[in-house]
Design a protein that fits this description.
It is a single chain. This protein is an alpha/beta fold and 580 residues long. It is built from 17 helices and 26 strands. The strands form eight sheets. It has a five-stranded mixed sheet with strand order 4-3-5-6-7, with helices on both faces. It has a four-stranded mixed sheet with strand order 2-1-11-10, with helices on both faces. Strands 17-18-20-21 form a four-stranded antiparallel sheet. A hairpin with a 5-residue loop joins β6 (138-141) and β7 (147-150).
């Protein structure tokens, strides 16, 4: 779908995504590109480009054509990044599979995407059944970089294309030496010129509705995100990034990999589950220049470290004294900045709404953070504001020259005094996807003929410049009461989750009443020595406190204690549909 966007996004050097990367890899040839945090090994941009060129030869020998699908399954490692970039710069279509998907879901995605090759970590591939992946010609290990499973398909030109590891490695080495007899140099880096609407990625969502759809993102969709990152100076030559969000997800992919590699950033790949202790240690070692994270990280720090500190009587008394409160806030801010490495320019929070209480406190202490808004279908960015211009309660401003937004007015959502009409947020622009792979019904439901994408989020658009987005909640989770009131459970959950002994919660409607499902913070319960009756009493106190904070139509009738954590998607969002 063509969309006219403002200059300079349609002028050189920003009008060709693959040219951006060939230029970056050549200009930064000797600079460090990727570091594996686990092994400590670092490769330069030149090393990365050479290995990409070698994979391009491998694709040729394997009969891979431009437009073929190549799946990728594994944790964040240099080999994962190289396989991704080699596929896109070859003109094939990458299909990243979140390593947290179940084996059955991973197999379904690989088959549904029509992938003809799979790059996979050994520890994940062992759970797949190669015989049930009939379209695959070969599986390449991300660990050993060898072919670990293979078939003998018929190539598109009608000739047999047997893929024998021993013969192909020998042939690959000969051809690479023949093509680059004097060694691989920066001036050898060259990638094909492809139409901007060529599909680059099929990214399968891990939504909370139980159905995973393959989002088709074009080179131009990626380019919109990348060029915005370049022009906003989010990353720059010689800056440092710590990649701990899954790169198979659009958010981490764009701002922990695609933008950094376009400018010469040194990316350290954590490659492990980012526990608070590990993340703190890695932050201090890497000292990232920009931090891209999800709300869960900031919210955990707030509840575990800050709340116990500011609720102590001596600190509460000091915070009640003008001028002294600023000194305490300054100390808290300094500790937080140090915990994140001490060298970052800002923290960008995305992937889910940030708890309002946490946001207000961070803004009060002048912590350099901002909240962006996006979705996989936009690869992902829709709106963002630098932290100094960020308006608390908002999700930033739509990207100038790239995206625009409007509200599909809902008369059941009366605007607040002096505020614009509320309704579903629709967006349009360079970043909007081509559609859902092999799913025309879902594509038609999401995309209007004139390019407007239904986000499924409810909210409003306000000042400045009528580009600032305010989100209330998801359309599908909104509860309509018998007397016509619209309730957004996320707003109630945000208040409840900050109360004592709450680890996570959901608000649902049952028999016309609101019920809160709460999984307790068992560490806090055990530390305070609460038994079953004590926990029930604490939850009842939470219910009373919550009902004093919400409207009459938002009253919680009952709190149900959940013994286990809620089932979540790979990006740690609760699968709400399981708890209706």
């Amino acid at each position: 779908m063509n969309y006219r966007f403002e200059e300079p996004y349609n002028e050189a050097p920003y009008n060709d995504l693959l040219k951006i990367y060939s230029t970056s890899f050549a200009d930064n040839f000797s600079l460090p590109a990727l570091t594996d945090y686990v092994t400590g090994k670092t490769i330069s941009y030149g090393d990365m480009a050479r290995r990409i060129a070698r994979l391009h030869l491998f694709f040729e020998l394997a009969g891979i054509q431009q437009g073929d699908k190549i799946a990728l399954l594994g944790r964040n490692t240099p080999n994962w990044v190289i396989a991704f970039m080699a596929t896109v710069t070859y003109g094939a279509v990458i299909v990243p599979v979140l390593n947290d998907f179940s084996p059955a879901d991973a197999q379904n995605i690989i088959n549904h995407s029509d992938a003809v090759m799979l790059f996979a970590a050994d520890g994940l591939f062992k759970f797949l059944n190669f015989d049930e992946l009939p379209a695959l010609r070969a599986v390449v290990s991300l660990d050993s970089r060898t072919v670990v499973a293979e078939r003998q398909p018929v190539a598109t030109n009608g000739n047999k294309a047997p893929l024998s590891h021993k013969s192909i490695v020998a042939s690959l080495t000969r051809r690479f030496r023949k093509r680059y007899p004097d060694g691989f140099r920066a001036d050898h880096i060259s990638y094909p010129e492809l139409p901007g609407d060529s599909t680059a990625i099929i990214n399968y969502t891990s939504g909370t509705t139980g159905f995973s759809k393959g989002v088709m993102l074009s080179l131009d969709n990626l380019r919109g995100n990348v060029v915005f990152g370049i022009r906003s100076n989010l990353h720059y030559q010689g800056s440092r990034a710590l990649s701990f969000l899954p790169l198979a997800h659009a958010y981490g992919c764009a701002f922990d990999m695609l933008v950094p590699l376009a400018v010469g950033t040194h990316v350290t790949l954590l490659g492990k589950l980012p526990t608070p202790a590990l993340l703190t240690k890695a932050m201090k070692q890497v000292r990232p220049s920009l931090i891209v994270c999800v709300p869960l990280i900031l919210e955990k720090i707030y509840r575990k470290l800050i709340v116990p500190m500011i609720t102590k009587n001596p600190v509460r008394w000091v915070l009640a004294v003008p001028m002294l409160d600023k000194a305490v806030y300054s100390l808290i801010r300094a500790k937080l900045v140090d915990a994140f490495g001490g060298a970052f320019e800002e923290v960008i929070v995305g992937g889910a709404p940030l708890n309002r209480e946490v946001e207000e406190f961070l803004h009060r202490i002048k912590f350099p953070f901002t909240v962006g808004y996006g979705m996989t279908e936009c690869g992902p960015l829709i709106s963002y504001s630098p932290w100094r211009r960020f308006k608390p309660g908002s999700a930033g401003r739509t990207l100038s020259g790239i995206m625009e937004a409007r509200i599909l007015a809902d008369d059941t959502l009366p605007a607040e005094a002096g505020e614009p009409q509320q309704g579903e947020i629709l967006v349009r622009g360079l970043n909007v996807m081509k559609g859902y792979y092999k799913n025309p019904e879902a594509t038609e439901a999401a995309l209007e003929e004139d390019g407007w994408l239904h986000t499924g989020d409810m909210g409003r658009i306000g000042e400045p410049n009528n580009r600032t987005i305010y989100i209330r909640g998801r359309y599908k989770t909104m509860i309509l009461t018998a007397n016509g009131q619209n309730i957004y459970p996320e707003e109630i959950e945000s208040k409840l989750s900050n109360m004592p002994y709450i680890n996570e919660c959901l608000v649902v409607e049952r028999s016309g009443h609101l019920v809160a499902l709460c999984h307790p913070d068992m560490e806090q319960v055990e530390r305070d020595g609460l038994d079953e009756e004590g926990l029930k009493a604490a939850m009842e106190a939470n219910r009373d406190g919550l009902n004093r904070l919400v409207g009459p139509y938002e009253q919680i009738q009952h709190i149900e204690i959940m013994p286990e954590e809620f089932e979540k998607t790979p990006k740690r969002s609760i699968r709400r549909f399981l708890y209706k």
